[in-house]
Amino acid sequence: MSSQSAKVDLNLMESLERARDSIITKGELPLWMISSESLYQLELRKLWPRTWNFVGHESEIPNPGNYMVRHVGPRDSVIIVRGDDGRLRAFLNQCVHRGRKLSAVDYGETKVFKCPYHGWSYNLQGRCIGVPFIEKFPKDFDPDKNGLIEVRMESYGGLLFVNLDGRAESLRDYLGDYAWYLDIIVKRSKIGLEFHPPIRWVVPTNWKVAAENLNSDGYHIMTTHLSGIQLGMMPPDVNFRGLVTALRVISRKGHSIDFAHWQHDYILKHRELMPACYPKWAPEVIESAKSNLTTRQFETWITYHGRTMFGIIYPNLSILHSFAGIEGLTDYARGIPGVPFIAFRLLRPIRNDLMEWTTWFAVEKDANPRFKQLSYRAYIQETSVGGFFEPDDMDNFQYITESSMSLKANLDGENVRAVYPLRADPVRPLHEIVYDDVEVIPLGITEQGMRYFWARYFDYLLNGD
Ligand code: FES
Ligand SMILES: [Fe+2]
Questions:
Q1: Which atom of ligand 1 is found nearest the CA of 120?
Q2: Which range among 266-270, 317-321, 322-326, 434-438 shows the weakest confidence by mean pLDDT?
């Protein structure tokens, strides 16, 4: 390394240390850090190889031979396959002979992975089972030593995560006390969730703008998403005031989720509207949750399920539990409610100013077919390219990314800042404390979770190899 680049590196690390201190103590972030190319390069070395990266759900590949191809960070392609033994494994999507990508498709069913270059083949367990002209190879060449490279994968409630770092903490420890709240969505069904094939979309934004928003920006909803009410998709709770009284669960590990409900005085004033404000769950989903969750988890869900739950599993898996009015069915004025849905969204970096946005619809496996169909309709209306929520968000993300790349932000970094002033004191948490890494804040619009999101980001970039 030249002394010049060592100096640049040192300056960068000093900037990161100052930024970490500033986001925690003052809630201020230099704007250039959002889309900085240097930080993007540092993420490739220090963030993506060490975090637990979401790669899909067990239900997407139910049978032996089913496989799917997913990515970890911007570069690493991974095959997740169900073996003959029913076990799920993750392998780098590359041939061990000379590194050619093995599968060019997203989903498939096979008995063998055959490399299109020289024809080496691998079974579902990753063993090398075929090498053309093997009789001409040196005597000490052993196909058994040339199996696919397996990467560490762990599951939580059917959600699959890959970590490229063999020494990283377990997924369970990574989730910490946050898992108690996550269970309310992913473990309330006796037989789990089913995921539908994802929809993908490329957006001109840095992934962190989207991730901080989906982590805990309840504050933007009453402005950015007001059109949802105006179009009649949401009940007429003008300005989404109910969100202000939500419980925001924030983890110092960067995860977050809120439980938003209707503002208490609003409920008292508009009792006649309330039946319409609680989306209608399939009764079997409620029954299943009652027996599968603890009493406290079940009550938490029932108390708050009238509105949205949204948050993030660090760094880039968004969970959205919302609802939408269905044309020809929902009539808020007559007390006929909208239909709930669950969406998981992955924000994957492609470049410092480009992100792939992948959305999955999820529903309880034991829900009835009619509910599944309506829930899917609610999901497709609200999310993705044609939805009435997400395109509004994308404009915000893109314009912040552009501001963060401005000359002024980059030349005069300390003075062009994003600020996160909204805070509140924590209340007694609902969960049993094991890891002591979660705070519960009675303010849905707090920006405190975003401070933790960024602090965790700086921790990854400042530490490790
Ligand atoms: S690179 Fe795959 S067989 Fe040669
Ligand atoms: Fe939004």
A1: 3
A2: 266-270
Q: Are 263 and 239 in contact (CB under 8 A)?
A: no
Nearest protein Cα to ligand 1, atom 1? 98
Give φ, ψ of 39 to 5 degrees. -70, -35
SS3 28: strand
Reported as a single tens digit per residue, the pLDDT across 234-245 is: 766 544 555 566
Scanning 163-258, the segments in alpha helix (DSSP H) are: 171-175, 179-186, 207-216, 221-224, 227-230
Ligand 1 pocket residue status of 69, Cβ below 6 Å: no
Task: Give 340-379 as a DSSP string.
Answer: EEEEEEEEEEEETTEEEEEEEEEEETTS-HHHHHHHHHHH
Quote the CA–CA distance of 22 and 361 in Å, as a whole number: 38
How far is the CA of 186 from the CAs of 6, 46, 183, in angstroms?
A: 46, 29, 5
Question: Which CATH number describes the domain made up of 173-462?
Answer: 3.90.380.10
Cα(295)–Cα(167) distance, rounded to whole angstroms? 36
Query: Domain 53-167: what homologous superfamily?
Result: Rieske [2Fe-2S] iron-sulphur domain (2.102.10.10)
pLDDT digits (tens, 9 = 90+) for 170-183: 999 999 999 999 99
Distance from residue 104's CA to the centre of ligand 2 (Å): 33
Instruction: Classify residue 412 by its DSSP letter.
Output: S
In the chain, DSSP finds a helix count (H) and a strand count (E) of: 15, 21
pLDDT in tens, 123-169: 999 999 999 999 999 999 999 999 999 999 999 999 999 999 989 99
Residue 255: beta bridge partners? none
Domain locations in the chain as residue ranges: 53-167, 173-462
> Is any ligand 1 atom within 6 A of the Cβ of residue 97?
yes
Q: Which residues contact 211 (CB under 8 A, 6 or more apart)?
A: 312, 315, 316, 318, 347, 453
Of all protein residues, whose CA lies closest to atom 3 belonging to ligand 1?
Answer: 118
Ligand 1, atom nearest to 100 Cα = 1
DSSP strand pairing (309-313 vs 88-92):
unpaired
DSSP string, 307-336: S-EEEEETTTEEEEEEEE--TTT-BGGGTB
Any atom of ligand 1 within 6 Å of the Cβ of 270: no
Whether the CB of 377 sits within 6 Å of ligand 1: no
The span from the CA of 367 to the CA of 358, in Å, is 24
In ligand 1, the atom with minimum distance to the C-alpha of 95 is 2
